[in-house]
Amino acid sequence: MNNTGQRQKTINILIFQGKFCLYYKQKGNYSASHRRGRRKRRAFLCFQQKAWCFPELSEPGRIKLSFSATSAFSAVNSYTEGKEELPNMIKDRPGFDLLSEERIKAALRTELLGNRIYAFWSVGSTNDFAYRRALQGDFEGVLVIAEQQTKGKGRKSRHWDSPFYKGLWFSLILRPDIEASKAGLLPYLAGVSVAEAIENSLSQKPDLKWPNDLLFQGKKFCGILSEVEFKNGKVTFIVLGIGINVNQKTEDFPERYRNQATSLRHECNSRIDRADLLAEVLFRLEQNYKLMSTHGLNEIVSKWKIRCPQFGKEVVIMQDDEQYQGKFIDIDANGCLVLQTESGEIKKIVAGDIRF
Fold it and tell me: Model's pTM, two decimal places?
């Protein structure tokens, strides 16, 4: 019993169909109460399949807190009625880290990037959503971010594992005034910006790998995917997608990826505040984007080369069914990798997989 004489109950707080819900044990089942006609719903199956959960818990999907049931329902109901702030009993929980629009806006230090935010609990692909919004005329700077992607993708439509609450999965709509041939340079700008953000905020120095990866000791933690719309030889818009493994533990990765993937949490030995990291990434990205607009991309590409340990060394490039071997000597004006073969021949490679 608490000081007011109310019985304390263990309440499970989670997200159900986009709303905060309270789950409590009742005769061996779980009931959910939420703001949809103030109905009670038997939702244990839905809880397992559709409700996105908070990590660091003994059982996925539940935050267990002790307080009176009356105060719990009152606080969550007041939030769903439109208050911007999360109930203190939720947001003050150690380790709580929610990428809500309000939390992101509070952290941002940008003028352009994040001027409009689409924040989702779960989405198929942030890039796909952003691409549709760009086709419909959304302005430059729009940020699309999700706690989870169910169809996250990388180059060549490869699957990108995007579990709930563990990383930063986001896309930006950019409308640079550049020729279509220069669009391949934008992933370099994004890679440098993410690297600078991590160096500044976490004091870690990642490596950049051609064409669009960031690594620690050979293990990938960040991928970049740009998708471009052209018209009359000019870029209409670019959707720049960035996925960063932030708070995964080793056991969170599918077993087949554990020797290839890592996270910032693993490298820093501590949990990372994702909203603050996102704000730093967008700040660096905006600064470099302004630099590109005024001075071109030569300085950005120079920064990229310094952070790429394969630059200037012998590499093997796999491109579809073909393989090229030689020295990685440059990035050209359109973003192609310039390879000098053993015979002295110069090859320019637009895309492929690099081995060293």
Answer: 0.75
